Structure formats: C-alpha cells, structure tokens
Amino acid sequence: MKTIEDLGDLRGKRVLVRSDFNVPLDGTTITDDGRVRAALPTLTALLDAGARVVVTAHLGRPKGAPEDKYSLAPVAARLGELLGKPVTLAKDTIGESARETVAALGDGEIALLENIRFDPRETSKVDAERAELAGELASLADAYVSDGFGVVHRKQASVYDIAQVLPAAVGELVLKEVDSLRKATEDPARPYVVVLGGSKVSDKLGVIANLLTKADRLLIGGGMVFTFLAAKGCSVGKSLLEEDQIETVKGYLAQAEERGVEIVLPTDIVVADAFAADSPHDVVAADAIPDERIGLDIGPASAELFRSKLVDAKTVVWNGPAGVFEFEAFSGGTRAVAQAIVDAGANGAFTIVGGGDSAAAVRILGFDEAGFGHISTGGGASLEFLEGKTLPGIAVLEG
Ligand SMILES: Nc1ncnc2c1ncn2[C@@H]1O[C@H](COP(=O)(O)OP(=O)(O)OP(=O)(O)O)[C@@H](O)[C@H]1O
Ligand SMILES: O=C(O)[C@H](O)COP(=O)(O)O
C-alpha cells in the first residue's frame, strides 16, 4: 500500500481524507471522542505538509437524505478544538457549499464535508451510482487518503470507489490497526477467547461461523444473547431478537459442539420494564425471562462465569458491550467483562477491544486504556479483519 509519503510534495495540494467519525452522541454532545482523536495523526501530518485537507465521513445510518440528528457539526467543533485550528463544515456533502468550502481552503487548512451518507449513492449496491459519487468527490481533490479504519469493510463510494479514481494512500490509523490486529491473530496464543455483544446482531452473527474455526471459547453477551437463548428454546420476552437467524444459530451451536469450541451463554439476565435508564429492573434466570420484559444486561452470575472463562486466556478479542452500558443500571456486565479482560492482560494475555461503542464503554466506565493491548476503532471492520476476510477498503489500496 502507498503511504502518505509516497504521494510526494503535498504543499498546496487538495487531499481528500476518509475518516470514521461515527461517534456516540447524546443529542449533540459527543460522549466519547476516541474516533476523532484517532484521526489526528494523519490529519496533522497532512496539515504540517501544507496540504489543503478535505475530510469526508459518515455518522450513523441516515437513509440517504439529510437529517439534522446525523449532522457532523459536533464533530467539526470537536476536531477544531483538538487540532487547535478552525474546521469549516460544508453544509452539504458534495454540492455548492462543499465546492465553495474547498475552493476557499489555504495551504495547511482543513474542512469537513457534511455526512456522506446523506447522499444515497454512498451506500448504493449499484456500482455505477457509487462511481458517479466517487467522481464528484474526486473533482474536489488531487489525492485521497483512506484513514477510516472502522469503515474499511464497507464497499462504499468514499471508501472503495474513490481510491480507483484518485492517487490513493493509506493513512496512519489504518496502518496502525492492521499492524496490531495482525500481530494478535496470525498465530494466536491459546486459549483464544472471543467475547461478542452489542446490538448489530445480524451484522456480527456471521463472524461466528469463522470464529468457530479459530477461537477456543466464545462468550456471548449483549443483544446477541437472545437469538442464542431462543435457539435453545427459551422465550426472551421483548428483548432484541433476530428471529430469522435462529436456525443459523442452532447450526453454530451444533458446529461448536462438534469442534470442541465452548460457546458460553449467560445464565442470568437483568430484565427491565422498558428500554430506559430509570426502568424498574430485576435479575432473572436466562431461561425465565418474563414475556413483557426486556433483557438489557447479563446478570451477576453470568459476569462471574465470563470472568472464569477469561482468566486463563492468552489472546482475547472483545467486540460489543455486554449490556446497555450507557444506562448505569445496565452497565454491570460490560464493566465486569472489561475488568476481567484487564486482569487477563495483566496475566500475560494479548487483549484487543474492537468497536466504536466497546471502546467508548472502556473509557466512559473509567478504565485506563493502557490496560488493553489494542483498542481498535473498528467494530465490524476489526471482526472481519480477524476473520481473515478481504476488506474492500484495504484491498483497493493494495491494487
Ligand atoms: N441487551 C441489549 N439490548 C439492546 N441493546 C444492547 C444490549 N446490549 C448492548 N446493547 C447496545 O449495543 C450497542 C453497541 O453495539 P454495536 O454492535 O454497535 O457495538 P460496537 O462495539 O459499537 O461495534 P461497531 O463499531 O461495529 O458499531 C450499545 O449502544 C449498547 O447499548
Ligand atoms: O461504527 C462502525 O462500526 C463504523 O462506523 C461503520 O458503521 P456502519 O456499521 O453503519 O457501516
């Protein structure tokens, strides 16, 4: 892969950078700016080289049209604070405002384009539509730098197609991530334990088939639990459930048994009346979730069980919070998993945390980042990397 140095003298050149600024927000307040900080080395290197830096990024999953709640305005403000220089936010992704904003940039100045997913062509499955958007983006720049590691598993216009149009290089964050993730998984020290959770259940269930050929133990927490419990014949009340995945999960359970891979499920669940911070809640057995209640965390016995399965690990990958950690009452499972992973690390395990929310959880819950071997900015991206899959946003840079 070409690096930024390979792009030559960048003074006065317009460089389009794809970053991953998909940060957790509470209204317009960024609750964890880890992904913004992670973008700084590349942006600073380009600004120091005198480039005119144009950043494109997404936030959330808008439906191909502008929506105020997905505006990158909070990110522009935070990025400006961290860089110590103004970051102009274009009012659109690729229209008149974007063109004017870029034209007004001086050497060593930076602008951010509005959420690229406001344009439906960004995520289109039709190659020609993505190529058209990539062509428009390319008209704003002389070179392209891919630095949004969290999104390199997406074949999207600003990640994949654009790299075929402009001279393209890999950014510092992507380089660092690839290096660390490779180190952990090319020949993992065993036991190799993977902890999965979070809410992007169907996105992440697919990786299990592959992990069953690599890991020694899989611990299942978060919203993923309920599809597993349903596959074992338990009712899950109003909890997050991917009904159409139940048969697939039954297949995983059977495969795991054949291969001698341990799948560890929670034995107790914290259930609430509603998805709300102050909802009344109780701990129930995992096979006794009442019909009208919703599971929002693994229970204390499960936290102990998970701990016992992590303590002797030599490689740990954790992706997806064990519960709705954003609400204090349902943060116990995630806190316990994070602590057990820190302790495994202190016992010599190489530990990786992946995912925007998992990495945010580590920081928001007050853990020292130094307690983990590598905190990846990628969730789905790091999982697909660990699976050994080809990531379109990286493959395209390898030419
Ligand atoms: N039982 C549950 N029910 C509903 N949501 C849950 C549950 N447990 C965890 N979550 C939510 O999962 C979200 C994170 O899931 P997600 O799959 O996006 O993980 P991630 O680490 O951010 O990975 P990525 O970077 O791929 O998005 C958190 O906001 C958390 O509240
Ligand atoms: O949060 C993430 O994992 C990345 O920003 C990618 O987002 P996506 O899953 O909506 O493509």
Task: Outline the fold blueprint.
Layout: E1 14-18, E2 25-26, E3 29-30, H1 34-38, H2 40-48, E4 52-56, H3 73-83, E5 87-89, H4 96-103, E6 110-112, H5 127-138, E7 143-146, E8 168-170, H6 172-185, E9 192-196, H7 201-211, E10 217-220, H8 225-231, H9 246-259, E11 262-264, E12 268-272, E13 281-285, E14 294-298, H10 300-310, E15 315-319, H11 332-346, E16 350-354, H12 356-364, E17 374-375, H13 380-387, H14 392-398
Parallel strand pairs: 1-4, 1-7, 4-6, 5-6, 7-8, 9-10, 9-15, 10-11, 15-16, 16-17
Antiparallel strand pairs: 2-3, 12-13, 12-14
The protein binds adenosine-5'-triphosphate and 3-phosphoglyceric acid.
Adenosine-5'-triphosphate binds near residues 200, 295 and 356.
Characterize the structure shown.
- There is one protein chain.
- The mean pLDDT is 96.
- The chain is α/β, with parallel strands linked by helices and 399 residues long.
- It has helices spanning 34-38, 40-48, 73-83, 96-103, 127-138, 172-185, 201-211, 225-231, 246-259, 300-310, 332-346, 356-364, 380-387, 392-398, and strands spanning 14-18, 25-26, 29-30, 52-56, 87-89, 110-112, 143-146, 168-170, 192-196, 217-220, 262-264, 268-272, 281-285, 294-298, 315-319, 350-354, 374-375.
- The chain is globular and about 60 Å long.
- The protein folds into 2 domains: 4-177, Phosphoglycerate kinase, N-terminal domain (Rossmann fold, 3-Layer(aba) Sandwich); 187-386, Phosphoglycerate kinase, N-terminal domain (Rossmann fold, 3-Layer(aba) Sandwich).
- A 6-stranded parallel β-sheet has the order 5-6-4-1-7-8, sandwiched between helices. A 6-stranded parallel β-sheet has the order 11-10-9-15-16-17, sandwiched between helices.
- The structure holds adenosine-5'-triphosphate and 3-phosphoglyceric acid.
- The site of adenosine-5'-triphosphate (ATP) has 22 residues, from strand 14 and helix 12.
